[in-house]
Structures are given as structure tokens and as C-alpha cells.
Design goal:
By secondary structure, the chain is of the alpha/beta class. It has 18 helices and twelve strands. Helix 10 links the parallel strand 6 (233-236) and strand 7. Bound molecules: NADPH dihydro-nicotinamide-adenine-dinucleotide phosphate and (2Z)-2-iminopentanedioic acid (2IT). NADPH dihydro-nicotinamide-adenine-dinucleotide phosphate binds at residues 92, 165-168, 210, 238-243, 261-264, 318-320, 323, 343-345, 370, 373.
Length: 445
């Protein structure tokens, strides 16, 4: 780490005890922006790094709700409004039992740089709750979302803070959240949430965007090296929103996804997973992945096998943070994997990244590779602001161009700062410089 950043890093650790995921995300960024520190003394003078590491505002609140049996539950809600130099705070909501303040801060911190990389006018934020949606009825989900929004609405606005989905939050949840926001505020403010269903102000391709974008990034990274996804065996962890639409686009681009997973285990289907069946299981029936083998006899479901042991040339971790560690990375190296692109946020551990880097694997960090979701959210905001709606084809083309731009900017920035091929350095420096320039221009706020 650059010597001037070390005390700043230490102060972040001391002031935010126990927030290990936040520490990990900050370390990764500070470790790689050293070359920008030398080139831009004006950033240090304005204390840009210190300011970026401190959220503008953090909201923590009680979320009481009643289940179908009349029992009362108390969850904790969060919204961390991290940085609004480039636009309104923007980032998803995660509903998952593991969510702590440090989880939301890691995601919000990543979001600042990711959103800057899109080149669109969006700041960074994140929110969520330790609510566990698994096994809950639609009515329970609705009551939880209504209670959550009854506090959160006062902090939101299309020019202030614009949430979207993340793990455990999709079109259904955003509908209940929007309904409650509209009821409390008496405003049909479409642009206050993105990822909405098409039935009420949503945009074409937002649902598909993170997965499609991740596949587009992989296509571009291979293309600049004279390679493609054509004929490649691909492993995609998870089977949620990001994973499903990654599978869809990889298949359209000529690759074959041979394994997907959920938190119970791994499906290995060497002939290529059946996407329609997966969508039916996960999106329509909301069932567990293990039922896949009821219909597809040739596939195997395993609870003790690591997905990274499935041989592949491309791996797209798209489930959750720290799911790909050094052992997983070594397994990928053994099977000849050439490219790892993070569909999820921070799915690779620092040790895992190190193994991949030493092994010569092309590695694309989440803040670049999964930026398609939030980019499509910004396009949804544009459409809502102009009361317009674009076609699927037009929206997908915009997304594809944005992903190519993000790739090329990360690639060029890495070269410019003496780290050719290092997308981590390229993404962090390019995102950081964009935010830093805006913060300088806005004065000490
Ligand atoms: P979903 O809730 O739709 O899906 C999450 C998937 O990951 C599920 O299949 C889930 O399985 C699986 N999973 C969760 N924890 C584990 C675990 N410990 N081991 C194995 N599998 C696990 O979420 P998304 O697809 O929306 O999000 C996935 C990742 O992508 C997250 O890191 C998110 O932050 C990131 N992301 C999402 C974007 C979006 O637009 N949705 C945009 C950019 C990034 P199970 O059902 O068993 O829990
Ligand atoms: O991690 C992410 O980029 C998201 N969950 C999407 C955020 C958004 O506002 O669309």
C-alpha cells in the first residue's frame, strides 16, 4: 500500500471495529490506487480518500412485522448513503439473514466506484435488512416490505436516494416497496426505485442486466485477447437473478454453462444446464435447486462438492461474497480456467485473487464486471424522468456498449498507470478518479 494511505487505512480499521467485509473492500481499493496518489497530489490535499471512506449518512432502524400466524418479528433495517458526488445515492437493498452494518458498508463502498465506472450520473449507497425471505409467504413478504418502507421512505427520493434490488430483493419486493412509498408520500415517483416490474414503470432489460452485462464483459475481455466464449465450458455459481441471466447470455454467445449452485449444493450438468427449467424452479416456483435433477436425470446434485471443482475455461462467481477462496482458485487453475469474472460483489477472497493472478488467469472484479445491473438502473431512471420506455433491443444495445466502455476504460487505465492487464487496479483507479474529480469540484461538502 502507498505509504500515505497506510495511516488512513489504519484509521478506517480502528473506527469501524468488527466490520470485516467493509475492511476487506477498503483494503482492496486503497491497495491499488497508489499510482493515482502520486499522480494527483491535489486529491490528498483535499483529503479525498478519508472522505470517501466515511459515509455521508448511515440510517439504522427497527422493522417490526407480523407473520401469517400472528407472531411478531423484529428485524433491523439499514441504508448507508455513502457518496453523492456524482448523483443521487444509488444501490440495491439486500434481504438476507447474514446482513450486518459492515455488509451494507462493504456493498455501499464498492458501489461508489462501480457507479462511477458506468459513466452515468449516480452516487453510491446500499441498504437492506437481516430479514430472511426464505420460506415466507407473499403476504409476509408484503408486510415486511411495507414496514421497512414506512421508515425508509423519508430518506428516499428520485433526486436523493434511489434503491433497487440485490440478494433477496427482486421485482416482487420492489413492487410492495413502491406501493407503500406511493401510499405514504401520495406521489407516483417512478424514479425513486429501480428494478421495478414492467407492469409499473420498470425498464426493459433491467432484470437481465447484471447477468447479461457480466457475460458481455467476459466476451470483451476474451475478444481483446483474440478469444471468445464460443465452445467454452462455463461455471456460474448461484442460481438467483444474476446467475440465471448470466447463463442465458453465455448460452446465446455460444458458451455452455455446466454447473450452477445455491446454498444447499451444486448442480453439474455436463451437457449444459436447462435454462427454462432453472427459471421455472427459481423464478416461478421459488423452489430449491436440488429439484433440478428430478427432471434432468443426466445431471448430478451434490451437497459436498465445490462448484470450482467442476472443470471449466471460464468461471463467473455470481452468488455471494467470499465464495471463491484460494482452494477454489487452485482448483480452477488445475482445470485450465482462463477467465474469472465476478458477477457477485466481492465473491473472491484476497487469497483467491492472489492465486488467480499468479496463475495468469484474467480476473475481472465485480465493480467492473457486474456494473451492468446498476447501469441499467440508471437507464431506468432516465426513462422514468422522461416518461418514456425503450424497446428491449435498444436497451440491450445500450447495455452492451456500456459494458464494452467499462471494460476498455479499466483496461486503458491499468496500462496508463503501469499495471497492464490488471483490471482490479484499472477499475479502482478509474472509478476513484471520477469520484475524486467531482468531489474536488463540489468543494468541502
Ligand atoms: P439472488 O437472491 O437472486 O440470488 C442469490 C443466489 O446466491 C441464490 O441462488 C442463493 O442461494 C445463492 N447463495 C447465497 N448465498 C450462498 C452461499 N453462501 N453459497 C452458495 N450460494 C449462495 O441475488 P442476486 O442474484 O441478485 O445477487 C447475487 C450477487 O450478485 C450478490 O453478490 C449481489 O450483491 C450481486 N449483484 C446483484 C445485482 C442485481 O442487480 N441483482 C447487481 C450487481 C451485483 P439460496 O437460495 O440457497 O440462498
Ligand atoms: O450491486 C449492485 O450493483 C446492485 N445490486 C444493483 C444496484 C442498482 O441500483 O441497480
Amino acid at each position: 500500500m502507498h505509504p500515505t494511505l497506510e495511516p488512513i487505512h489504519q484509521r478506517v480499521l480502528d473506527r469501524n471495529p468488527g466490520e470485516t467485509e467493509f475492511h476487506q473492500a477498503v483494503h482492496e481499493v486503497l491497495e491499488s490506487i497508489g499510482p493515482a496518489v502520486d499522480k494527483h497530489p491535489e486529491y490528498a490535499e483535499a483529503r479525498i480518500v478519508e472522505r470517501i471512506c466515511e459515509p455521508e449518512r448511515q440510517i439504522i432502524f427497527r422493522v417490526p412485522w407480523e407473520d401469517d400466524d400472528g407472531d411478531i418479528h423484529i428485524n433491523r433495517g439499514f441504508r448507508v448513503e455513502f457518496n453523492s458526488a456524482l448523483g443521487p445515492f444509488k444501490g440495491g437493498l439486500r434481504f438476507h439473514p447474514t446482513v450486518l452494518l459492515g455488509t451494507v458498508k462493504f456493498l455501499g463502498f464498492e458501489q461508489i466506484f462501480k457507479n462511477a465506472l458506468t459513466g452515468l450520473p449516480i452516487g453510491g449507497g446500499k441498504g437492506g435488512s437481516d430479514f430472511d425471505p426464505r420460506g415466507r409467504s407473499d403476504r409476509e413478504i408484503m408486510r415486511f416490505c411495507q414496514s421497512f418502507m414506512t421508515e425508509l421512505y423519508r430518506h428516499l427520493g428520485e433526486y436523493t436516494d434511489v434503491p433497487a434490488g440485490d440478494m433477496g430483493v427482486g421485482g416482487r419486493e420492489l413492487g410492495y416497496l413502491f406501493g407503500q412509498y406511493k401510499r405514504i408520500t401520495n406521489r407516483y415517483e417512478s424514479g425513486v426505485l429501480t428494478g421495478k416490474a414492467l407492469a409499473f414503470g420498470g425498464a426493459q432489460v433491467r432484470r437481465e442486466a447484471t447477468g447479461y452485462g457480466s457475460a458481455f464483459f467476459a466476451r470483451r475481455a476474451l475478444e481483446v485477447r483474440g478469444d471468445s466464449l464460443e465452445g467454452k465450458d462455463v461455471v456460474v455459481s448461484g442460481s438467483g437473478n444474476v446467475a440465471l441471466y448470466t447463463v442465458e447470455k453465455v448460452h446465446q454467445l455460444g458458451g455452455r454453462v455446466v454447473a450452477v449452485s445455491d446454498s444447499d449444493g451444486v448442480v453439474h450438468d455436463p451437457q449444459g444446464v436447462d435454462l427454462e427449467l432453472l427459471k421455472d424452479i427459481k423464478e416461478v416456483r421459488r423452489e430449491r435447486l436440488r429439484v433440478y435433477t428430478d427432471k434432468i436425470g443426466r445431471a448430478e446434485f451434490s451437497t459436498d462438492r465445490s462448484i470450482w471443482d467442476v472443470p471449466c475455461q471460464v468461471a463467473l462467481p455470481s452468488a455471494t461474497q467470499n465464495e471463491l477462496d484460494a482452494d477454489g482458485a487452485r482448483a480452477l487453475l488445475r482445470s485450465g480456467c482462463r477467465f474469472v469474472g465476478e458477477g457477485a460483489n466481492m465473491p473472491t477472497t484476497p487469497d483467491g485473487v492472489e492465486v488467480l493472478r499468479e496463475g495468469g488467469v484474467i480476473f475481472a472484479p465485480g465493480k467492473a464486471a457486474n456494473a451492468g445491473g446498476v447501469a441499467a438502473s440508471a437507464l431506468e431512471m432516465q426513462q422514468n424522468a422522461s416518461r418514456d420506455s425503450w424497446s428491449f433491443e435498444y436497451s440491450e444495445n445500450r447495455l452492451s456498449e456500456i459494458m464494452t466502455d467499462i471494460h476498455d476504460r479499466c483496461h486503458a487505465t491499468a496500462e496508463e498507470y503501469g499495471r497492464p492487464g490488471d483490471y482490479v487496479a484499472g477499475a479502482n483507479i478509474a472509478g476513484y478518479a471520477r469520484v475524486a474529480d467531482a468531489m474536488l469540484a463540489l468543494g468541502l461538502v
